[in-house]
Design goal:
184 residues, alpha+beta, Alpha-Beta Plaits, 2 domains, four-stranded antiparallel β-sheet, two-stranded antiparallel ribbon, 5 helices, 6 strands, Glycine zipper domain-containing protein, transmembrane helix, membrane
């Protein structure tokens, strides 16, 4: 594994300026890699797209939909029965009222339960994500690590990080855009 120091820049010219400063400090061209990192969710890690198998904010939506459908179906059936009794009708209207209640209830239940993860655990820290931008990565020795980080910071780099990865032919070949940066 190689030791890598990296920082995020807003534009390619800013990242290239940082690279020029690194070259002036005797870092070789094969030790600097500049590339763009897409926004979270745009990395196509799965065949259908996206970065994750499941949306963590959707947790609980199916339970909410099931409970809402059951409760509202009973309520719809009761209201429908009352209306049908008052009108003197029977039969099909009761089924329609129950079905409509189940549909509305499942929608309401799913919407109420989805995205409530932070409400269930209000003390949890927000999950750190890697922001989009131009990444300047530098393959360094342990002795060069602090100097590279300093140059990147002085050049306006954000989220300066330290990583271990595979560096081949002047590129960080096993970079994972889904992994959050580890501050240097």
């Amino acid at each position: 594994m190689s030791l890598i120091v990296a920082a995020r820049f807003d534009t390619f010219p800013e990242a290239e300026n940082a690279a020029r400063k690194l070259f002036a400090r005797q870092f070789s061209e094969d030790s600097v890699n500049i590339f763009f990192v897409n926004p979270p969710g745009w990395h196509d890690q799965h065949p259908a797209g996206g970065d994750r198998t499941a949306d963590p904010d959707a947790r609980g939506a199916s339970t909410g939909a099931f409970l809402g459908a059951g409760l509202m179906a009973m309520l719809g059936a009761a209201i429908g029965a009352g209306i049908l009794f008052a009108l003197g009708s029977t039969g099909f209207g009761l089924v329609v009222a129950a079905a409509l209640g189940a549909y509305v209830g499942s929608l309401m239940g799913a919407m109420r339960m989805a995205g409530r993860r932070s409400e269930r655990n209000p003390n949890r820290e927000d999950i750190r994500v890697r922001h989009a931008g131009v990444l300047t990565a530098v393959h360094v020795s342990p002795e060069q690590e602090e100097q590279a980080a300093q140059v990147l910071r002085e050049s306006g780099g954000k989220d300066v990080e330290r990583a271990n990865g595979r560096w081949r032919d002047g590129k960080w070949v096993d970079f994972d855009p889904v992994q959050p940066p580890h501050p240097q």
